[in-house]
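Encode chain A's predicted structure.
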Amino acid sequence: MREMELFDEDGNDGTVFRDVIMLALLGFVTIVVLLLPHLNPPAKAVETTAPPGNIVVEIRWPDDIDVDVDLWVEAPGDKPVGYSNKGGRTFNLLRDDLGVTSDITGLNYEVAFSRGTPAGEYTINLHLYRNAQKIPSIPVMVAASLKPDANAQMVPIANKKVEMSREGEERTIIRFSIDGGGNFIPGSINTLQRMLRSAKR
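Encoded structure for chain A:
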């Protein structure tokens, strides 16, 4: 069997073969370079949404229990806001949680936001509307935060844990004051009872 000749009759030493290999390699490198940006796309900037409102009041109680705890809030010179009156001039109740009823998430959570920070005293109440499971003591976390202006960070005003037990019970959890500049007045927190649900107008 005749060995493959490295040179053709004209004395060329496989230039065509090398050209074909180089073009194939160049094509492969081009494809890789074109695909690189798509293999690991640059991460998109995560959009952080600032919570709406200047004052945020949240309550949370154990999930997946058939208990309806209601949040009631009142701003200075405004009417109380809760499940039966979801909006006033200052506050809006964004979530009225009924416990297990009509809840596909299993989370027990209510939240209210304010538009602006009128000077004066604010009141936050809890009302145990329904306790179908007759749970003797329901722990409820209450958090209130303040953002004096659009560029400021949320600042905690108070975080409290309270126990609710009697169906129909309404308790004042936090009362605090804000000055004319929209700032929390240190030392203004108290728990002097003030009925909001029965005083709605």
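DSSP finds one helix and eight strands in the chain.
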